[in-house]
Design brief:
Elements (H helix, E strand, L loop, with lengths): L3 H5 L2 E10 L2 E8 L16 E7 L4 E7 L6 E6 L5 E6 L4 E6 L6 E5 L6 E7 L2 E6 L3 E7 L2 E6 L11 E8 L2 E6 L4 E5 L4 E5 L2 H4 L9 E6 L5 E5 L4 E5 L3 E6 L8 E7 L2 E6 L2 E6 L2 E4 L14 E5 L2 E5 L4 E4 L4 E5 L3 H33 L2
Antiparallel strand pairs: 1-2, 2-3, 3-4, 5-6, 6-7, 7-8, 9-10, 10-11, 11-12, 13-14, 14-15, 15-16, 17-18, 18-19, 19-20, 21-22, 22-23, 23-24, 25-26, 26-27, 27-28
């Protein structure tokens, strides 16, 4: 059985997803400066897909070509089986199936474009990407193309985010477009960002970072400066949080515990009382110390950084790997002590120099 160090050593996390409350998946890239890869060219460093079962403390992994750059999603299938799917920029697909179905590579999709995002809705995976691709996975290696440009062109739309409520109710973001797109099963409808966001004085572009379709029926779009849109088709979208906070980049969002959560700058925040409320978990020794990727499903919230991950059940945190919050504070205190000692040494040197120059 593989150990944590054997699976994670020499790699850093690039995406994270919840399969169920005990099972979590990650995509990871090799660290170019790690001694394990000494002598290897950058183009030869692997990409790794990782599964961790907390209930059994069991690690699984698969290695792939470095340029695949996988995104991850997971959940419980229509027949109650756990499954995780990974899609990459080279149109490649791989899966972890936790039952009789095979795990591993499922081939390359005939998209003539890259896959940019993946989500899991009601037992099925949906993906979006370049060349105006919207697709639904109906089974291992079986995809139904809901939408795809007939010809390959650099001018075709690139869809970057997707979430929604099913095959006839999906919401998308498109690279370079100031609008939310709605797929209703037979076509796309654009809902432009409100004019008071796009035509502000002074102008401040609304740069979308993530999109969440909440179970309440409201769709949220978070921006690079903490602003938030809310709405849905066919009524459109309006500012929910209109005042920008330039230091509070919304890096990711997810729905957990009947609330919208976000990685908000360098912390976690929850949408309450019409605003973002940053959460303080400093009294929990298992709380996360890095915030870059997040997902929620089956009653748990997963938060990961490049080298750490932790889960939250609404009451307390549990560390999956990496340093704990207490260890982080100890390291930080040591670094501060080293800084103080370094300053004292430099001050002593300056004092000796001044004394030497005195008559």
């Amino acid at each position: 059985m593989a150990t944590e160090d054997e699976v994670l050593g020499g790699f850093f996390v690039k995406d994270a997803a919840v399969v169920d409350r005990h099972t979590f998946v990650f995509t990871a890239h090799a660290k170019p400066d790690d001694p394990r890869w000494q002598g290897k060219e950058a183009g030869d460093l692997p990409c790794r897909l990782i599964s961790y079962d907390l209930s059994r403390d069991f690690w699984g992994k698969m290695d792939y070509h470095p340029s695949m750059v996988f995104h991850a999603a997971g959940g419980i299938g229509e027949h109650g089986g756990k499954q995780a799917l990974f899609v990459g920029l080279r149109r490649n697909v791989a899966a972890f199936n936790y039952g009789a179905a095979p795990s591993g590579e499922e081939g390359v999709l005939d998209l003539r474009a890259s896959i940019r995002d993946l989500t899991f809705i009601d037992g099925q995976f949906y993906g979006v990407g370049g060349n105006a691709f919207i697709g639904r996975r109906d089974g291992p290696g079986q995809w139904h193309y809901l939408h795809l440009s007939e010809t390959r062109s650099g001018k075709n739309p690139v869809y970057t985010h997707v979430d929604g409520y099913g095959t006839e109710d999906l919401y998308l973001l498109q690279s370079g477009k100031s609008a939310v797109l709605h797929w209703a099963g037979n076509g796309l409808t654009e809902y432009p960002f409100p004019p008071d966001l796009t035509e502000a004085d002074p102008p401040r572009a609304f740069l979308p970072r993530d999109l969440v379709a909440a179970p309440t029926g409201t769709v949220y779009i978070g921006s690079a400066d903490g602003r938030l849109l809310a709405g849905r088709a066919p009524t459109g979208f309006a500012p929910f949080i209109a005042d920008p906070q330039p230091s509070r980049d919304i890096r990711a969002m997810t729905w957990f515990g009947d609330e919208l959560w976000a990685i908000y700058g360098t912390s976690l925040a929850v949408l309450r009382d019409n605003g973002w409320q940053e959460q303080d978990f400093s009294d929990d020794p298992e709380a996360p110390v890095a915030f870059r990727y997040m997902d929620a499903r089956d009653g748990v919230l997963l938060v990961a950084g490049e080298n750490t991950a932790a889960i939250y059940d609404g009451t307390s945190w549990a560390r999956l790997f990496g340093i704990s919050h207490d260890e982080f504070l100890e390291i930080k205190a040591l670094e501060q002590t080293r800084g103080i000692l370094k300053d004292l040494v430099e001050s002593a040197k300056k004092l000796r120099e001044v004394r030497r120059q005195q008559p």
